[in-house]
Amino acid sequence: MKQIGLKIKREWKFLSIFVICSLPGLFSMAQSNTPVLRIGIMADMQYADKTDHGSRFYHNSLMKVDTAVDFFNRNKVDFSLILGDLVDEGPKDLPVLLEHLSPLKKTTYCLLGNHDYVNVSKPDLLHTTFGMPAKYYAFTKGKWRFVFLNTNALSEYATTPNSADQHEWKTLVDSLQAGGRKNTQPWNGGVDRKQLEWLQNELAQARKNKEHVIVLTHHPLLPENGYETLNNREVLDILYKFPEVKLVLSGHNHKGNYVMANNIPFVTMEGMIETATSNAYGLLELYPKEIKIKGQGRLSSRIFKLSSK
């Protein structure tokens, strides 16, 4: 009996040492399963009080927004992102949509899409109607910088007649058409010179502060399939200089898309407006070593490892 007791004592001692030695690893594993930031994401709700058309069910977007809002609140997101086209025919339908977004417990950041500009007399002031601090802007959360580009800046629908911006847009479109590009559609827009300089400065500041960057746009930058930002290649030239850019997230093309270029994932979110019942929203989770998109409904789920560069 004494020998059995000594054996049990030795085994218990060994087990205790094993558990104590394993605690740091177990603690580290638990930490890695907890995101640094959890963010709600959705795009292209395009709510409007009008008759459905094709695969677009305008009234149903309210029900879909309610579902997404409840999901974001239950998952305790740190904030939410909306990547444009909140409404289909401009701000006249915005108050109703905002009522359905109001139960969100945390801040929502948005940018504008081409449909948000419909029947707008003062496009330069439209961002204030949607509660945005500026037409394009950036903020930081910890070691993550979020950069919101205004890809509507160079377009016919978002510029006033005979303005410098409209002249820049016409010159750009003429050049693209001469080059055989397919993205010179009336619903596409581009990024103006002043904003390109601002983008360069934002990314330089992120490098100085050793931050990761997520770029948000309405019009995608890639792939080049006719839905992309007019001067996407100029924007890409800047982004490719900065390995700090870890993700570009966009809307506009309701089918969704994904391209990896220059070690940057370019993700186009599926549009919420499409289909009568199938929704499209999800979570963007940021970890020390990876990015996860956890899609709900039609929104695709993806995982990207963060490079050490």
From TrEMBL:
Species annotation: Sphingobacterium siyangense
Extract the GO molecular function terms from the UniProt entry: 2',3'-cyclic-nucleotide 2'-phosphodiesterase activity; ADP-ribose diphosphatase activity; CDP-glycerol diphosphatase activity; manganese ion binding
Q: Which domain of life is it from?
A: Bacteria
Q: Name one Pfam family in it.
A: Metallophos
- TM ranges are none
* Identification of the protein by name: Calcineurin-like phosphoesterase domain-containing protein
Gene3D superfamilies found in the cross-reference section: 3.60.21.10
> Any idea where the Calcineurin-like phosphoesterase domain is?
37-255
